[in-house]
Amino acid sequence: MSKSPKSGAPRGRNAQSKKGGVRKDNGPKRSFAPKRDGRDSRSGNKEAAPVARSQSPRREQPRTAPTPIVVEPIVREHKPTSARFKTPASVLPVMVEMDGWDDYALLDMGHGQKLERYGRYTLIRPEAQAMGAPRLPEIEWKRADAIFTGDMEEEGPGRWKFTKQVDEIWQMKYGPATFNGQFMSFRHVGVFPEQAAHWDWVGEQIKKADRSLKVLNLFGYTGLASLLPAALGAQVTHVDASKKAIGWARENQELSGLGDKPIRWICDDAMKFVEREVRRGSTYDGIILDPPKFGRGPNGEVWDFFESVPNMLACVRKLLSPNAQFLLMSSYAIRASFLASHELMRECLDGLPGTLESGELAIREHNGPRMLSTSLFSRWSAPDNNKAKGA
Ligand SMILES: C[S@@+](CC[C@H](N)C(=O)[O-])C[C@H]1O[C@@H](n2cnc3c(N)ncnc32)[C@H](O)[C@@H]1O
């Protein structure tokens, strides 16, 4: 698939470094890059960071006052919840560990960076949580194929520097899914490997239900959390605001040989989509939400985790079918706590049986004792006897 590297001036995010560069290939060219709005967010389809305007002294301000920004108040129904929730049963804190797999390993971490292997490439990326010292000798770090340099802030802007020739696109596998990796702006390569622990959990829920489930995957990105349930017989609806991310996910579907599986690919604002589904009376047996901290819908609709998640969960609750099997929400908004996410989810699921677990999702270091916290989660699963009630 790959061609020899092109010589010439470096370009864009795949610019060649002095020592190495990106090998272009004839594969699909995509420019999907999470857009940025200036706030930190994990792949929340961010616009390019706005150029900071210098603070002009008052006297220099134009005479015509700028149009005031009208902030619509968020009106929430004041409905006191019962002091004690009836159900589901709470289990917390839960530490979910992802140990890595053939195409992913957390090799080392320390001094604000992590050394990871994604398929055939070893990468160094900034990692605010890696506060200790690296375990491996420096020579191991020097062998890395690419280093993301730049803003140390989570999701901050920066660029990839290549120490060797690398392909622009390379393939990796997880179970029945084959997917493309690509060096993206904002340090991503098209997969959040820690999510593998959740993909497995969703798989267990699907197997436990022992029937064909209707699954909704919101903020679905490059589609792994859609492809893996589809491979297990689920009918999946995948929603993402980015056309390019959906294109990438569809390529992953073809690469995986899952082209015949029933997946509806929908480019929409997740909030608008769920509100519309509620009005239509649609239901789903399993719902996955992996929202960014901040993102935008295709028409500029704003997703802000802290502002939007209560209404999102209220709608999601209405979309759960009477014999729903699971609901899973990740949160990379670390300013939240898993307890906050747990209590919100518990409030929304009041009246349901089953179990609600919340905690942190962490990656276990390869051949090492340490774990790296990546995100928070809350996940609800129906009681085992739900299977009997299935269609
Ligand atoms: C963090 S990624 C999801 C990661 C993915 N679930 C996985 O584990 O591989 C966030 C995704 O949310 C999408 N997004 C951001 N704002 C959105 C919105 N308002 N509606 C729908 N999708 C949105 C982005 O395009 C991006 O693909």
Automatic annotation (TrEMBL):
Molecular function as annotated in GO: methyltransferase activity
Keywords: Methyltransferase, S-adenosyl-L-methionine, Transferase
CDD domains, per the entry: AdoMet_MTases (cd02440)
Pfam short name (any one): Methyltrans_SAM
Region annotated Disordered, chain positions: 1-71
Biased amino acid composition, Basic and acidic residues: 22-45
The S-adenosylmethionine-dependent methyltransferase domain, residue ranges: 179-326
EC number(s) given by UniProt: 2.1.1.191
GO biological process terms, semicolon-separated: methylation
First-level EC class: transferase
Superkingdom of origin: Bacteria
PANTHER family listed in its UniProt record: SAM-DEPENDENT METHYLTRANSFERASE
Stated name of the protein: Ribosomal RNA large subunit methyltransferase I
Annotated organism of origin: Pseudovibrio axinellae
Gene: rlmI
